[in-house]
Amino acid sequence: MSEQQAKLSKSEAKTYRVQGFTCANCAAKFENNVKSLPGVQDAKVNFGASKITVWGTTTIEELEKAGAFENLKIREDKEKAVNREPFWKQKENIKVYISAVLLVISWFLGKQYGEEHFFATIGYAAAILIGGYSLFIKGFKNLVRLNFDMNTLMTVAVLGAAAIGEWGEGATVVILFAISEALERYSMDKARQSIESLMDIAPKEALIRRGNEEMMVPVDDIQVGDIMIVKPGQKLAMDGIVIKGTSTLNQAAITGESVPVTKTVGDEVFAGTLNEEGLLEVKVTKRVEDTTLSKIIHLVEEAQAERAPSQAFVDRFAKYYTPAIIIFALLLAVIPPLFMGADWSEWIYRGLAVLVVGCPCALVISTPVAIVTAIGNAAKNGVLIKGGIYLEEAGSLKVIAFDKTGTLTKGVPSVTDVVTYNGDENELMTITAAIEKGSQHPLASAIIRKAEEDGLNFNDVSVEEFQSITGKGVKAKVNNAMYYVGSPGLFEELLPNGIQSEIKEQITTLQIQGKTVMVLGTEKEILALIAVADEIRESSKEVIRKLHQVGIEKTVMLTGDNQRTAEAIGKQVGVSDIKADLLPEDKLNFIKELRDKYRSVAMVGDGVNDAPALAASTVGVAMGGAGTDTALETADIVLMSDDLSKLPYTIKLSRKALAIIKQNITFSLGIKALALLLIVPGWLTLWLAIFADMGATLIVTLNSMRLLKVKE
């Protein structure tokens, strides 16, 4: 194959859903098996989301063959999920029940007729075969390839126990191991349900009008430009723009906001949101695979495939730990009988117990189950965390920097004060708005909005000779008189004696309050001062307080505004540091300085003009991701609603996840160490070893499930 062809086929990536993964090890093995299939260039398994992406050409039959060791079922990514049997009825669990019954019967027979009795031994052997059949097949295959995983360790231990006559112990180990695997499967299924529940949020079809005809159309067949009719009480199937009607929409599924939002003509609406009261007609703007909900699901699934630092540590540790345990078990079984004349069967038994206790199940599952649970919980609450690495980083943050405009403030300037010196306020505002209509300045829009709110007729005023005075303001003729609107600096130059001292004082007072002052006047006098300010979000002060409360040492506000305005807003909000007069590259450099000093720094912005600073921070947090693709793509964590109050929840969840991961790893290793110490006095039995392993797996899983309870 030529390089060109290789590149071409490499780009043909196809994703499949996988059903039946029991552990991270099996997922890795499946990935390797698929990579070695003919026609496959590469493959990547996402264990958290139960998916595999394959580059190259293959069939579902081939993939299922590659997963036959685990009886994996494969289906197309777009196919509807097959309803899995309830946990108690699953085929692999039924074998466990039969084995358990046989074990109990054999135990009674052993008590009645002695452990060595033929019927007791037959019962135990049957329990071992039924409960451990699939385990042995995997174990033998691995043994031949010298691939020592959990299945290999268990197979050797069980057969060893049978060989030295410990049939009951062997059967107990098989059953406890099967229970442990079933619990692991159950816990991962529970954790994955958070994504599956996201997938079911949006309807699979919608009422569409094409021409004069209305019809139900599956979402895959809906085209951009179609008109979707959404009745009260229905969910939206697609993203779009409202072209007719007004209603309130519950957007909790996308943004996590519990309060419904009013939507009317021209507003953007999202798939998966609930129309509460009015009839809406929506023009579809995105295909089903491009909707905001699809992007969220895709990002959450990708996030679960990202390896967190602690997971990478566990994987590296397990790689060396398992062979070390095997060597230790072998030496323990052989050295005392060979060199110290000890009893062979006793020391082989101890060696087998070491093999069982060495099984790294709990350790391997300790991180992924916590990460999958935390990321799923966050997605349900309108926070997208794009990987375990960012979840962990957010948990260890010391400093958070905020962009001011649009993040701590609403980003929409509004008129706060009008001070007149000569003439009627409405008349002067009408003249100002008429002149500012020709200006592109953001402050001009604040004046026009104010005039519209007050019902002033500024559109009827004729304006002549409009001219912009760069960096200072504008001038124009109204009713044959020349008026100027601009900064105080413009009038210092314009008026023969500069600005009068009492007006200067008034300007300074307004500026100290964090307002930008614009002046209306002529070449001879000042007629009015108009103060404009960017309003602070209601939640900002409370959010900063909560962040300091949860242990964030430093909050910094970054802005391009002048120092005076910045300090007024910074003090109101309660941030610990204020940096003003910054250009975008200054923000970037400041974030780098903070990283050098504190190592872990988050930057919170609206994701559009803050992209460089978001990228330079340890964790970039973007707001309002539901409306902007840029935010979804550039940030590491996205607050889907335009709402800062999700930030303390995110920090709390991340810290809890970090703590739980550390607890899980410590506990898993601690249990192993304790069990290994019991070998010295000879107290470690086979069933106790597997019980320790199973107990650790169960406790680690239940501990991780606590992350589902973290609320705002």
From TrEMBL:
A GO CC annotation given for this chain: plasma membrane
Enzyme's top EC category: translocase
Catalytic activity: Cd(2+)(in) + ATP + H2O = Cd(2+)(out) + ADP + phosphate + H(+)
Domain HMA: 12-75
Keywords, in A-Z order: ATP-binding, Cadmium, Cell membrane, Ion transport, Membrane, Metal-binding, Nucleotide-binding, Phosphoprotein, Translocase, Transmembrane, Transmembrane helix, Transport
Membrane-spanning residues: 94-110, 117-136, 320-340, 352-376, 665-684
Top-rank taxon, per record: Bacteria
Pfam hit, one: HMA
Membrane topology listed for this record: Multi-pass membrane protein
Main localization category: membrane
GO molecular function, one term: ATP hydrolysis activity
Enzyme Commission identifier(s): 7.2.2.21
Annotated InterPro entries: ATPase_P-typ_cyto_dom_N (IPR023299), ATPase_P-typ_P_site (IPR018303), ATPase_P-typ_TM_dom_sf (IPR023298), ATPase_P-typ_transduc_dom_A_sf (IPR008250), ATPase_P-type_domA (IPR059000), Cation_Transport_ATPase_IB (IPR051014), HAD-like_sf (IPR036412), HAD_sf (IPR023214)
Localization terms from the record: Cell membrane
Record-linked NCBIfam families: ATPase-IB1_Cu, ATPase-IB2_Cd, ATPase-IB_hvy, ATPase_P-type
Alphabetical list of PANTHER family matching this protein: CADMIUM/ZINC-TRANSPORTING ATPASE HMA2-RELATED (PTHR48085), CADMIUM_ZINC-TRANSPORTING ATPASE HMA4-RELATED (PTHR48085:SF5)
Family: Belongs to the cation transport ATPase (P-type) (TC 3.A.3) family. Type IB subfamily.
Name recorded for this polypeptide: Cd(2+)-exporting ATPase
Higher taxonomy: Bacteria, Bacillati, Bacillota, Bacilli, Bacillales
